[in-house]
Amino acid sequence: MLPVALPFLCLQPLVENAVKHGLEGKADKCHIQITAQDAGAEALVVIEDDGAGMDPGLLRRILAREVSPTGGIGLSNVDDRLRQVYGDDHGLVIETAVGAGMKITVRLPKYQPGVHLAGRLTPR
User: Fold this and answer.
1) Is 124 inside any structural domain?
2) What share of the chain is helix, strand, coil (3-state, %, to 5)?
3) How many domains does the chain have?
4) C-alpha pair distances (Å), 102 with each of 17, 75, 81, 84, 107
5) Any idea what the CATH number is for the domain that residue 98 is in?
6) What is the pLDDT of residues 71-112, one digit of tens each?
7) What is the pTM of this model?
8) Is 18:67 a contact under the CB 8 Å cutoff?
C-alpha cells in the first residue's frame, strides 16, 4: 500500500481537541483511540474519545465560525485545510452528542494529483 499524504499539522489539533475538551475534567478513566483504515479509494483516520462530547448544533456553529466558546479554531482550521487541499468531497466527519464522546473521521483520497507526501501542492 502506498503512503497517503496527510497535510502538515492536521492530526495534532484533532488529538489535542480530544484531550483538552473531551477528557478534561473527567474523574474516571478516559480513552482516546486513533486508527487508520483503508476504505477503497480513500483512507480514513479516526480519532475517538469517550469524553464529554458536545451539542451537534453548537458544533455546526463552531465549524461555520459563528461561535468559538473556548477561543480555539482547531477543528474548523483542519476541516478548511483538508477541503482546500483535497476538495469539498473530503475533510472532517464529526459524530458527537452531549455525554457521548466525539468521533472525528478524516477522509483522505489515497491519491490526489499535485499533492506530495509532505502535503505540499506542486507548482503548475
Assistant:
1) no
2) 25, 25, 50
3) 1
4) 10, 12, 20, 24, 16
5) 3.30.565.10
6) 557 888 899 889 998 898 888 999 999 989 999 999 998 875
7) 0.81
8) no
